[in-house]
Amino acid sequence: MENSKKQASYSDKSNVIRKAYLVEPIIRHRIQDSLFYKQYLYLTNEATILPVITSQVKYIGSTNANGKPTPFVCCFLRLLELEPSRDIIEMCLHQLGTKEFKYLTALIMLYIRVVWPYEDVITTLEPFYSDYRKLRFQLKSPIMVKGMPILYKLSHMDVWCDELLNNERVVDLILPRMVPRHVLFERGLIGERNYHGIVSEDENESKNDSESNSDDYESDSD
After folding, report:
1. pLDDT digits (tens, 9 = 90+) for 72-112
2. Intra-chain end-to-end CA distance of the chain, in Å
3. Which of 2, 24, 184, 209 could bridge to 189 as Cys pair (CB 3.0-4.6 Å)?
């Protein structure tokens, strides 16, 4: 009976005793048994986990074809276990406006999507529709292109934001169900959709150029 209460109810996050149980058991157990989790995360706290994220997380992904969890999903589970304060989460998200560590931003966006109330998720994540930084994603299994195995693909932060707000699953993780935006608007919990201004022709050209050069990868220091 106790185990049934611990498992996540994806339609009502308030019923979850521990946020870590929002990760499905098979993935959670693989993470906790992984060498990366034991070596880097087992004894971390809210402060010491940040250097691990910024130094070790260089792409987004869940598990590979062999079931090995990525540093991204390992750090995500550890954040759920630690349940940092809202002030710490907001600081990690915005990084004092520096935008230096994009994978830290992407990880915190996922944490917010899973943990925070619906209205806060929308108002906090929607501004990232105007963020076009490149993100590297690990493929579940490699694909062959011109005889070479490709292990990663490129996307952008605005696409990641859209997936978090609209998909039922990202990187093999089931997301809690979201109340539709128009319902929250009718209840007065959020304002009208803000597209953050009209994108200029120069910005469109800049984004098209970045997409055309998708073979080039960027590090967090770029």
Report:
1. 999 999 999 999 999 999 999 999 888 899 999 999 999 99
2. 50
3. 184
Instruction: Answer whether 89's CB lies under 8 Å from 108's CB.
Output: yes
Which among 146, 200, 207, 138 has a CA at the least distance from the CA of 172? 138
Residue 165 C-alpha from the chain's centroid: 11
Position with higher pLDDT, 217 vs 146: 146
Give how far Cα 43 sits from Cα of 27, 89, 104, 150, 207, Å. Answer: 20, 19, 19, 34, 41
Tell me the domain boundaries of the chain. 17-187
E strands, the chain, where? 134-145, 148-156, 169-170, 173-174
How far apart, in whole angstroms, are the C-alpha atoms of residue 122 and residue 118? Answer: 6
- pLDDT tens, 158-197? 999 999 999 999 998 999 988 888 888 887 877 777 665 4
In angstroms and rounded to an integer, the radius of gyration of the C-alpha atoms of the chain is 18
Please report, for the chain, how many H helices and E strands are present, in that order: 11, 4
**pLDDT digit string (tens) for 12-37?**
554 567 889 999 999 999 999 999 99
